[in-house]
Amino acid sequence: MDLIPAPNPRPLRIVLPGGSGQVGQALARHFHLRGHHVTVLTRGPYTAPWQTVHWDGKTLGPWTNYMEGADVCINLAGRSVNCRYDAAHRQAIYESRIESTRLLGRVIAGLAEPPSVWMNASAATIFTRALDKNGVDLPLDELTGKLGEEEHAAKTAPFALRWAMRRGFSARVARDWEAAFFAAETPRTRKIALRSAIVLSPTPGTAFGVLSNLVRLGLGGKQGNGRQFVTWIHEADYARAVEFLIAREDIDGPVNLAAPNPLPNRAFMAALREAWNVPNGLPAPWLAIQFGALFMRTEPELILQSCRAVPGRLLDAGFHFDFPAWPQAAEDLVQQWKNRD
User: Fold this and answer.
1) Which residues are within 8 A (CB) of 130 and not within 5 positions of it... i.e. 6 or more apart?
2) d(CA 333, CA 130)
3) pLDDT recorded at residue 178
4) Model's pTM, two decimal places?
C-alpha cells in the first residue's frame, strides 16, 4: 500500500504550465476527476473540463494571478523533442525549457502566497550510460546514476559519427534544466525534479500509438540491435506517482519517474506484439531507422538511445506501481486502445 497521508480535506489548486500535451492532459484529467481545481497554462487555450489560461512561457502576464495562492505548480513546458535535432530545433528545445523554468522561478519567488510544492519536468536521459563487465546496462537510480555530458562533432564528420556524438544533447538539456530549476530562490516552496521515463498513453500520436501502429503493420520487430534498454512508465502510474510526491512533504530534489523494470528493446517489442496478438514483426536495422527518422522528421536517438533508469526513491518511499512490468502494462494499454475504437 502507498504510504500516502490522509487526503487533504479541501480540493487543491493545481497549476500546470505547459500542460496541454500528452502528459499534461493525463495529469489534468487525473486531478480533475479527483475534485481538484486544475489550471493549465498554454500557448493555445483549448476546450477542456478544466480551466485553461494563455501564457507564452517567456513573459509576465495575467497568468501570474493564477499562481498566487496555488497549492501545486507542475511545470511541463518545453518544445517537443519529436523533431530533427538541427541547430534551430536544438536551440528551441533547450531555450523553451530553461526560459520557462527561470520565469516561473522569478514569479514564484515574488508571490505573497507561493505554491507549497513546485515540480519541474526533467528526463531520465539525464544519466550517462553505464555498463557492467559483460557490456550490459547497469540500472541507474538517483544515487548511483552519473549525469551525462554533451559531446560535439564537426559538420564535416561522417554521418554516423555525428549522430553518435550528438546523443549527449538530451543529457545536457536535462542537466541544465534541473540547474535552472534548483537555482531559483524559492525558500517557501518544496521543489522536485521529475526525471521522467517515456510516459505511455493509449492515445494516437503518442509513443505508444506510433509503436502500436508499427506492430499492427507487421513492422514491430526489434529496433537497431534490440539490446538498448527502454525506460518507460504507464500514464496511470505517472499520475499516481506525482500525487504521491505532492502528499509526501519529506521528499524533495530529483526523483526518477519510471517503472521499476526497464527492459531491452527486443523484449519490449515482443511483449507489445503479444499484447496486440501479432506473432511476428520485421526488425528495423540501424540504417533503416536513420532513413525512417529522416523521412518522419524525427531523431533516431529517441529509439536507439539506451536508458536503464529505475525509481529508487519512489520505491524506498513505499510507492506501489500498478504496472511494474511491461507485459501487463502493454496489455492494459492495448485494451484501452481497443475500447476507444
Assistant:
1) 137, 138, 140, 145, 146
2) 30
3) 97
4) 0.91
